[in-house]
Design a protein that fits this description.
Blueprint (H helix, E strand, L loop, with lengths): L14 E6 L10 H8 L2 H21 L8 H4 L5 H11 L10 H7 L5 E5 L3 E6 L9 H7 L16 H8 L20 H14 L8
Antiparallel strand pairs: 1-3, 2-3
Length: about 210
């Protein structure tokens, strides 16, 4: 059913997953089937958005194992950063500082990217600091954050700023949305898409 699926982990200013569905090979459809095959918006809204949110919940709960990148997430923090994080927010959970990034990936917030078209759904996160620095891009690929950045949209206290300035290190890649996260789950996605096109069903896949 699905002829093509593309995953773009960095598109423009956000990090997310881009899925493009092409049903051009489906011919001689009855009126209702033809209409649904040309407009996947109801299926995206009823099925794929909730499915994506569930996947991201599993990805965070499993510390990357759900998406096949658990070994990357398991990379230890540097001692300096770990000490700073404990002092700043009181925990060392990977990929979570105050939770705004995964909030935007597990439900729709003001920092979520949700673009629903008739044959394309784009979802992701645009969490950034006041100067437009996008954290997820660094977490997706690895890199360094700017010295003295703010966390989310909250300005650092002087104490946090001093600890942060002293602790900047290279951040290893811990992809929130691995490029291959959809691959093992395409059978369920295909089955759900077929159900919707044939009879309007909106069963959410169980991954």
């Amino acid at each position: 059913m699905v002829d093509r699926v593309e995953v773009d982990v960095e598109a423009g200013i956000f990090t997310g997953a881009r899925l493009e569905f092409d049903f051009s090979g489906v011919k001689r459809l009855k009126a209702g089937i033809r209409q649904r095959s040309k407009n996947l918006k109801p299926w995206f809204k009823a099925v794929m958005i909730p499915a994506f949110h569930r996947m991201m919940e599993e990805q965070l709960a499993s510390q990357g194992a759900f998406g096949g990148v658990g070994s990357l997430w398991a990379e230890p923090y540097s001692p300096k950063y770990e000490a700073w994080k404990v002092e700043a927010v009181g925990h060392t959970t990977k990929e979570v500082l105050r939770g705004s990034m995964f909030d935007s990936l597990t439900r729709i917030t003001g920092e979520s990217i949700v673009d629903v078209g008739s044959s394309e759904l784009i979802m992701g996160t645009a969490v950034a600091d006041d100067e437009g620095f996008f954290y997820a891009i660094v977490q997706q690929k690895g890199g360094t954050t700017r010295k003295g950045e703010s966390s989310g949209k909250r300005k650092r206290t002087a104490k946090e700023q001093a600890a942060s300035d002293a602790s900047k290190d290279f951040i290893p890649a811990r992809p929130p949305i691995p490029p291959n996260i959809w691959g093992p789950r395409m059978r369920q996605v295909n089955r759900s898409a077929k159900e919707y096109i044939l009879n309007g069903g909106t069963t959410i896949p169980v991954f």
